[in-house]
Amino acid sequence: MAYESNDVIIGGDGPALEGYLTWPTNAGRSRPGVVLVHGFPSIARPGAPSRSYHLLAGRISDELGWGALALSLRGCGDSQGQFSVDGWLDDINRAVDYLSERARHVCLIGSTTGGSLSIIAASQNEKVQGVATIAARADFDDWAGEPGLFLEHCRRVNVISEPGFPVEPAAWAEQIAANRAIDHVAGLRGRDLLVIHGASDRQVPAGDARELADAHASAHLRILDGGDHRVRHDPRCVALLLGWLDRASD
């Protein structure tokens, strides 16, 4: 299926976010759409996170006829703003609103931190029909336990670049402790949840995936043998995502 692609800017009440939108040619609102939500950046992989999803977005539009929106959350790539958990949740919801104006219905695919936050955002947003997570954390308790060290890490990877941010470090840190995917996943009951994780993930144990799936009660859990924390690049993971979206087309 032919599709068009464009760089887009998502505005609204918040920092301007860069995005990459693929859409089946001449499809209009007749097609469903998916927002691709990236994980937390690292020093080893700088740049605009949205660009690492261009190929996946293209495949989704070409093979399935879905619209796909990959975005860089605030503080990442060329998107404006500074990282906070509440800020990233707001960004996901703004992306859902943006796509909802163009698509018949909307799903989320979130990787690592983006997967955890996709669960939380969707649990509070009825516009989201379903969620797929990849290597998602059940919580951010390790970050919350050492907020000063985590803030230093945020500055190193440049998701926080303003010297005076956050103005209230304690309130910024509280957002990390208060937003736990495991506490929100039950809010997705009745909606489709796909949980993908690598069996050999050393950063986030596969036990987190099992906890999330159990708390949802009817999630599709897939633990991939040999998969590590970057399992989203595994062809098996991509095949699972495409199959899940294909089933969610109606």
Q: Which helices and strands appear, and what pairs or packs with what?
A:
Elements: E1 3-10, E2 17-24, E3 33-37, H1 54-64, E4 67-71, H2 85-100, E5 106-111, H3 113-123, E6 128-134, H4 141-145, H5 147-156, H6 169-178, H7 181-184, E7 192-198, H8 206-216, E8 220-224, H9 235-247
Parallel strand pairs: 3-4, 3-5, 5-6, 6-7, 7-8
Antiparallel strand pairs: 1-2, 2-4
Helix pairs in contact: 1-9, 2-3
Which features characterize this protein?
250 residues; alpha/beta; Rossmann fold; eight-stranded mixed beta sheet; 36% helix
Main pleated-sheet profile: 8 strands, mixed
Order of helices and strands: EEEHEHEHEHHHHEHEH
Could you tell me the radius of gyration in angstroms?
17 Å
Extended strand count: 8
State the end-to-end distance: 18 Å
Uncertain runs = none
DSSP summary: helix tally: 9
Residue share in β-strands: 15-25%
Q: What is the residue-averaged pLDDT?
A: 95
Outline type: globular
Give a brief rundown of this model.
Helix content is 36%, strand content 20%.
Question: How would you describe this structure to a colleague?
Answer:
The protein is of the alpha/beta class and 250 residues long. It has a single domain, classed as Rossmann fold. It is built from nine helices and eight strands. An eight-stranded mixed beta sheet has the order 1-2-4-3-5-6-7-8, sandwiched between helices. α1 packs across α9. The longest helix is centred in the middle third of the chain and has 16 residues. It is globular. The two termini are 18 Å apart. The mean pLDDT is 95.
